[in-house]
Every structure is written in structure tokens, then in C-alpha cells.
């Protein structure tokens, strides 16, 4: 098991906690967290692990911080 701090931003916070600790299986990825939280994969624009841009399939490590952002609008 790995413990990961998950931080959600903007619209992902609607009806969810903005920050939560999750216990995940060894080898879990951001894709696994997104599925668990019922966030459509195509709505995730930015994935950061410990402040660095990562991909959906990157393995999470114990004590990582995963930040998920939807597309940012405005102009």
C-alpha cells in the first residue's frame, strides 16, 4: 500500500473534498485515482505529482502529492 495526498482544483472540487489522503495499491497511477473519484479522464488537463507534470500511467509512490486540474478557461 502507498498513501497519497490527492488535491483537486476548480470544478473537480464540486461534491468532493478539495484535499484527501488515499491508501492505494502498490503501482497505482493517477488514472486509478481519477476512476475512483468518477472524474471523466478526458476532463483532466493537468496532472502534477509533487509539483511536476506527469502522465496518467505514472506509478504513484508513498507520500506523493497528486494534483488534478481541469482545463483552465478565461482569457
From TrEMBL:
Pfam families reported for this sequence: ThiS (PF02597)
Protein name: Molybdopterin converting factor, small subunit
